[in-house]
TrEMBL record:
Keywords of this entry: DNA-binding, Transcription, Transcription regulation
SUPFAM superfamilies per record: Homeodomain-like (SSF46689), Tetracyclin repressor-like, C-terminal domain (SSF48498)
DNA-binding region extent: 29-48
Source organism (scientific name): Nonomuraea rosea
Short name of one Pfam family: TetR_N
UniProt-recorded name of the protein: TetR/AcrR family transcriptional regulator C-terminal domain-containing protein
Record domain HTH tetR-type: where: 6-66
Length: 209
C-alpha cells in the first residue's frame, strides 16, 4: 500500500466516481475507494472524514467536470450574454446526467459546499445579477432554475419520461379523461426541443421581454 500525496484528492474522487458509475452509489464505500486507489482505508480519512464528506466531494467533482468540459461558454470572466451562459450551463448539466446517471442525482440531494461546487453556483448567481434579478431574489431564482434543470435531466436518464407510462395507465383501466383528450400529444417527444422550449420559458420568467 502506498501513501497518498497532498495532490491526490482528485484521484480519490475520480476513483469514487468510477466505482459509482460502474456499480451504483450503494457500492461506494471508503474501503472500496481505498482499494481502487491502492491505499489503506485509514489513509483516506485525512481527506474525507466520512462517506458524507466523500459524497460532497463527488458533487464538487461533477460540477468541476461540467465547467471543464464546456469552459469556452461557461467559465468565469466570459463576455457572453447572461442567458447564453445560463443556457450553456443547463445543456452541460443535462449532458453530465447522461455521462454519470448513477451519480448525478447527488446534485439534487446534496448541497454544493465544496469550493468547486460553490464556484459553479456563483456563476449562476452572476448571470442572474446581470439579468437584472434583484439581489434578494437571486438565491430563490437560482434554486428554481437548478431544480428544473437537474430534475429534467434525472427524469430523462431514469426513464420517467418513458412513453409507456400512458399506455400502462390505460391497460390498468384508470379513468383519465384529460389523458384521453391529450392522447395525440402524449407520444414520445423530441426531448432536446422540449428542453430548449422549457429553458426559453424560464428565461422569460427571469427577465420578461
Amino acid at each position: 500500500m502506498r501513501k497518498l500525496k497532498t495532490s491526490r484528492q482528485p484521484e480519490i474522487l475520480d476513483a469514487a466516481l468510477a466505482i459509482a458509475d460502474e456499480r451504483g452509489l450503494d457500492a461506494l464505500s471508503m474501503r472500496a475507494v481505498a482499494e481502487r486507489v491502492g491505499v489503506t482505508p485509514m489513509a483516506l480519512y485525512g481527506y474525507f472524514r466520512n462517506k458524507d464528506e466523500l459524497l460532497d466531494g463527488l458533487v464538487g467533482r461533477l460540477l468541476t467536470k461540467l465547467v471543464a468540459e464546456d469552459a469556452e461558454r461557461i467559465g468565469p470572466g466570459l463576455e457572453g450574454a447572461w442567458n447564453e451562459r445560463l443556457g450553456a450551463i443547463a445543456w452541460a448539466t443535462r449532458r453530465l446526467a447522461r455521462e454519470h446517471p448513477s451519480v448525478f442525482p447527488l446534485l439534487l440531494s446534496r448541497p454544493s459546499v465544496t469550493p468547486d461546487g460553490v464556484r459553479v453556483v456563483d456563476l449562476l448567481y452572476q448571470a442572474l445579477i446581470e439579468a437584472g434579478v434583484p439581489d434578494a431574489d437571486v438565491p430563490r431564482i437560482e434554486r428554481m432554475v437548478s431544480t428544473f434543470v437537474i430534475g429534467f435531466a434525472i427524469s430523462e436518464v431514469n426513464g420517467r419520461f418513458s412513453g409507456g407510462s400512458n399506455e400502462t395507465r390505460t391497460r390498468r383501466g384508470v379513468d383519465a379523461p384529460a389523458h384521453r383528450r391529450l392522447a395525440g400529444h402524449l407520444a414520445a417527444r423530441d426531448w432536446d426541443a422540449e428542453f430548449a422550449a422549457d429553458l426559453a420559458d424560464l428565461m422569460r420568467i427571469i427577465r420578461p421581454v
